Amino acid sequence: MPALVLAVLLSGCGTLTSLTTARPAKPGHLSVALEGGAMATRSPGWGGNNEAPIVAATTRLGVSEDFELGLRVGNVRPEMLFKVLLTERNAPVAFALEPTFGVWGYETSAGQSVLVYSTISGLLAIDAGGFSDVIIAPKVEVTMGWQLEDQAWGGAVTAALGLGWFARATEWLAFVPEIVGGVHVVHFGTGGGVAGQGFVLQAALGIVFGGDRGFEL
Questions:
Q1: CA pair distance 87, 83, nearest whole angstrom
Q2: How far is it, in rounded angstroms, from Cα 187 to Cα 194?
Q3: If exposure means fewest CB atoms within 10 Å of the residue's CB, which of 13, 114, 215, 217 is most exposed?
Q4: What's CA 97's distance to the chain center, in Å?
């Protein structure tokens, strides 16, 4: 197994938690979420074991009735978020796609490296009453990495499922716990590849200020 695949998975934490509902904020409405949790990765076939905290902040802005734009930063890999609602926003069961995208450069003992990564999440929101949603979120994450000096490269694909609850306490405050479990489908790169080989577990809580009934620009 190429050493770069290990670097791809362990250089910075990639969060799989969405910590949101399928229903975008209304146009011009802004939310800020403080997110905290933990992750554990196990890849016994090649020693890629890792535990790390998750501390991040996510800002989201409603652009239209069915589109929301966001940005996540913290001790996780920075990423842009794009939520597209595919049903009526007030339907008892709403569904949205939320692709994320990010690019991150970092230094290793082998020199400068670059990561490009994306997660596509399906957000199924089931109305639980009281402005709350139960969230079921299947996800696929793809990460690619390059070591620029020696032209080595590697990547990984992870499939996961998240379960969460978007609970709005007031017009400007919501709590979003979520747990995610996933498996590494394949690792590949310079020197070959391997299927399977490990899993990832994440749990986090988002505290959301503003949003659909809160801050308005």
A1: 12
A2: 5
A3: 217
A4: 12
